[in-house]
Structures are given as C-alpha cells and as structure tokens.
Design a protein that fits this description.
The chain is an alpha/beta fold. The protein is built from 26 helices and 30 strands. Belongs to the glutamate-gated ion channel (TC 1.A.10.1) family.
Length: about 750
Amino acid sequence: MQNETVAIIGPQLSVTAHLVSHIANELHVPLLSCAATDPALSSLQYRFFVRTTQSDLFQMAAIADIIEYYEWRNVIAVFVDDDHGRNGISVLGDKLEESRAKISYKAPMRPGATRNEITNLLVKVDLMDSRIFVLHTYPDWGLEVLDVAENLGMLGSGYVWIVTDWLSTVLDTYSPVSSNVIANVQGVVTLRMHTPDSKQKTNLVTGWSNLTSRKASNSPFGLSTYGLYAYDTVWLLAHAIDKFFSQGGNISFSKDSRLAQLGLGGGKLPFDALSIFNGGELLLKSISEVNMTGVTGPIKFTSDGYLNHPAYQVINVVGNGYRRIGYWSNYSGLSIVPPEILYRKPPNRSSSTQQLHDVIWPGQTTQKPRGWVFPNNGRELRIGVPNRVVYREFVSLVQGPDTFGGYCIDVFTAALNFLPYALPYKLIPFGDGHNNPKVSDLISQVSAGVYDAAVGDFAITTNRTRMVDFTQPYIESGLVVVAPVRKRNPNEWAFLRPFTPMMWCVTGIFFLVVGVVVWILEHRINDDFRGPPKRQIVTVLWFSFSTLFFSHRERTLSTLGRVVLFIWLFIVLILTSSYTASLTSILTVEQLSSPVKGIDSLISTGDPIGYQRGSFAENYLSEELSIPKSRLVPLNSADDYAKALKDGPKKGGVAAVIDEHAYMELFLSTQCEFSIVGSEFSKMGWGFAFPRDSQLAVDMSTAILKLSENGDLQRIHNKWLKGIACRSQGTKEEVDRLQLNSFWGLFVLCGFACLLALLVYL
C-alpha cells in the first residue's frame, strides 16, 4: 500500500478482510477476495471490498433448504467464535426461521481451541435432544471436531452432520485423504461451490496437476474450487484494468491529512506514507461491470455485489471418497439436475420439485434419521393430566394415584403405538379432585417447563397456541347452547300449520285469479264457460278449486287458456307436495320448542348463563361475545347442569348452559328434557399439548392421523362416548301413530259442509 497500489487480491480470511477493508475504503483501493465468505462483508460499509467467490449467505440458504427437505426443525450449530463463524451462523438462523425451523443451541469455539475444550463442548451438546449438527469452522479445527465426535460416538446411527464447504476443500486439495481422516467423516454431508464443466476448466486442472506432481510428488496438492475462483479473480481484475484504461482512466495518487491521524500518536504503522488512488471509483465501477467466462463459468456481478447464479454441489462422504447427491442453486433450490440446465427453464421452488439422491448417513444407514432424541438424562417425561370431577368418560383417575382411564387416555396410548420409538413417560394428576382444574393453568405449566406435555380434553384456542404446540385434533368440538325444551303436540288445527296465514291467503287468492283469467279467455268460445251469470260464477269457483285435485272437467280450448292452466297446475303440484311433506313431518316427528333459539337470542334475554368451571368458555363468552361476567354462572357437574336448567332464571337457575359439543352429547344422553338449540357458534377441536417447537407434537400428530385412517379412533369413540340416546321406544311408537285429535277438525269441517248443503237443499 505504500508503493502506490491500485488493487489488492486477497486476503483469504474473513477476519483479515474486515480489517483491511477499512483501509481499502480510505485509500479507494479495490480489495478482491476469492476466499473471504463472511456475509457481513457485503454490506455498504465495505464499498471497496469485492467478493469474487460465493458468499456464505447462499451456503447457509442451501443448508437451510437441506434441513427443510428432510423435515427437521431443530439444529445445533458448532462454529468458530470469530466474524467468519458468528456471521455465517447468524444468517443460517435467519434462513431456518423462514421454514419454521431454528437453531436450538449455538456452540461457539474460541479460535485455537484445544482438544479438551472441543471435547467438553461436544459432551455438552450431546446431552441435548437435537441430533442435527451444523459445523462451520476452518479445516484444521473442523477435522479435530469430527475426530473428537467420532471418539465420543457422535458419528453413529441417528446423528446428522452437515458441514460447510471447508470439508470439500480438504477432500479436493489433499486427495486421496488419509484413512484416519476419511474414517472420521463417514456419512457427513458437505457442500462444494458448483463450477460447470468446460474445456477451459479441464485444461487448467490438468496443467495444475502436472505442475504440482513434479514439485510435490509425495504430497499431492489438488486444485479446489477456491483455487478456480482465485484464477478467475486475476483475469477478472485484468479485464477491469483494461477497461479502466480504455475509458480514459489514469494512475495517480494524492495525499490526505486524515491518513496521518490514523497513526495514533507515532505508532509503527506509517499511515502518513499512504496515498489515495484517484482512479479507485472508476476501477471499482469497471470491476463491477466485468462480464466474462472463466474456469468457474460465467462471471457477472449482481446489483448487490454477488456473483450471478450462486450454486453448490451437495456431497455425501462415504467409503474412501464421496458421492454427489444433488445440487442447490438460488434459482431452483435442490435438484439432481445441474443448475445450468435449469437456468433454461422458468424458476420453480415448489416442494414437489425439490429432490436429492439417497444419503448414506452416519452408522451406514440409508434411513433418514429422526433428528432428535429425548434428553440423555434418564428421566421419564412428566405428562400432566387434568383430574376431572365431571365427564369422567373423557379423563378419570382410577385404580391408584397415577393411573388414568377414559377416551382421551385411550387415544394417547393408542397413538404411542404408532411412534417409531419408545416413549418413557409418567402421567401426573393436575387438580385437587374436588373441582375441575383450570385447563389454562395446566397449559401454562407446560409452557413454563413444569410438565413436558399435557394429555386431556383440551380445546385448541388461539390464546393457548401462543403458549404451546398442539397435536392434530383427535375430536371435533365447538360451543353449543343447551336449554330446556318442551314437546309440542299436534292439535285439531295441525293441518293448517304447514302454511303460514299469509301463504294461505295468497294461495286462495291465486285460485280465484286463475279461475277468472281462464273464464275471460274461454267464455266467448267455450260453451262450458257460458250461461247465466249465476252459473258462470259457480263454474269459475268450481273450476278454480277443482284444479287442487286435478279433477276439473271443463275443457280449455284457447291456446292462452291452456298455457295459463299448464303453469297453474305445475304450481299446484309443487304446493300440494310441499304441503304433504310438511304435514307429515308435523304429525310424525316429535316437535320440540324452547324460548331460547340460539346464542343470539340468549344474549338478548339478559338471563343467567351456565358454563363448566375451568373451561375456556368463560373467557370466550366475556371477551369475544361481550357478555358481562355477572351473567355467567360456573357449574361443576352434570347434576348442577340439570338442576340449574330445571330451576330456570326465576328460581336462581340459568336460562341455558354453554359448553363444548362433546360434553353436551354425553350430558343429553341421559337428560331428555333438554336439547341443543341453534347451531355451534365456534369451531375447534381437542389436541394434546407440548412445548413450542416440540418434534414429539409432530410425531404424535402423524400417529393420530394414522389412528383416524385405520378406524381405531372411531372405535375408541364408540367405546366411551356411544351413549344410549335419550328416547323412549314406547313414546316414539305413540308419536309415529297418527291420533284422532290431529284430524277431528277436518271431520268437523266436512260434516258442517254436508249439513249446510242439506239445509240449503231442503
């Protein structure tokens, strides 16, 4: 820099690049690095830093896509604690969050960590539940970490190690790798920057191989992808300088008094001898506009300063070497097709197109590791279970202090049989056994870590999902209104009930209107509609009402008359069919009535409303429906429900009870005088609760879906909840048989008509 430098190629370390970039900014000297991959170096702070290789931003995006592809949710990051390691892992965390995964623990190593320090660190992370490790460090320390991991048994079956491209650099540079090193990396997945094959690349690799074989016959020194990018960096700068001169640029320098102040009071660094490159801005612009084809492929910078089309090869170390299992590109994600082929097609990042070849994982297995285990501390999972005092068919404490039974417990134990691993657990009662425990309190304790999970009849609500993760619902439920109902028996005028008074009036008027219209259209040409006025009036009335039974004898001759009659007969057919169906329902189906029609009418009455103590219904009614808490009456048992409903508001009871549909079905199976009125006004389901981001919640959801698909879930439901319907067979038969009191009004009407006709005749 003291010798009037116009550009710098290097450095190879991100930590050094951070320091030198500050000076390069002051001197306006472009700093081209083919090895500093720290994503933070791409910020606007380092204007004169030019990265001529791929940024770790894309490498971490590739690792995040691999983790998402295998459906893992928690990873442990092991990294060197410097700018290179911290900033790379920070980007990884951001990328994982985009796919709802996360870094569950960050395990930093100080630069130059000893073997004992590495051992202590790995022993600590091995006690955690995640088995997905991302290793981001430098080659020497990375190999040491994997060697320690092998000695600790952390490269066996069930473990996953994804390491950054430092490992592929080692494999390419020192191939063939020693047997000790290759033995410590079996099953490891690593990345390598993808460079498409070309004649130019083949010639360089061949020339490099010939050169190094003559000079280092005992220790071959291969050409890694970083070497390819270093080669292209020199040519990139040469093209940029050529363009710099062609645009009228010249090499000149100037002094700046501010540089002398950087000496910090007579330090050893001669900052006052440094000069500012006057053509730095033009040269930087020339570099950013370079568009060439090198040994790494097409070289062109994006507006953000990244190389165009970043891509990586995904490599699996196995046997004495490695195998490529696919590619990753920022254009199309994971694929088994080279990215340069996909660039010719429209971009597609859908999950169905993401693909990799099979991996041989640590432990020489091709089965995808689960990615997590229970913490290695020998402790059983503490599972909280509500100690209910009502609706014990769902959950109940039986035969001892920690033995439970019921519908929810049977679903839980049946789902455990579908897990691909054993689950050590202990059910712990929650509640005093005298009152129903408050479910929200139990959910809160799961969130706080007091319990590892909770099993019971837990409605999945918005507030609860903010604290814990729920499984797939194993039963549908929603809030319903239950109120007293009374039977409405048909009376002597039941035949009038199918139509409203307005409907009867309109129907009668139309009978007369149609008769008059047909008479107008027919009486000039049809003898059936002619005669004395009295006869014509009788004919109109008889013709109109006889169409009700399709028994009219008068012919219609005019075309218009036939059209009107055809339409009217069709209407009569619909009316009589509807009347018959409605009357049949009224006379044969038990009719129930209640002053409460649903949740809206219940809110408008201002009467007390009952709910199950400890359920979420209280908060829902008061917060969502704005019902004053003074109207809400907590009830403890089914007997309390029945008594409060029978007493009613006037005797200190309630007008209705609001509870979940599953509970109410069980309650109504033995209570005939009550019924659900209206429809469900909230839709939800029941699930088991686990801490946030628990993989066990995902596995249990899959198990519950399998229970549903094979019919076991329905069989468990029938075992516990298929109660005896609230009905009397004798009463049903009595209702199905039509009684005289439903029709005697019609007989009286007919008798009156006969008597009146006889009197007029006489």
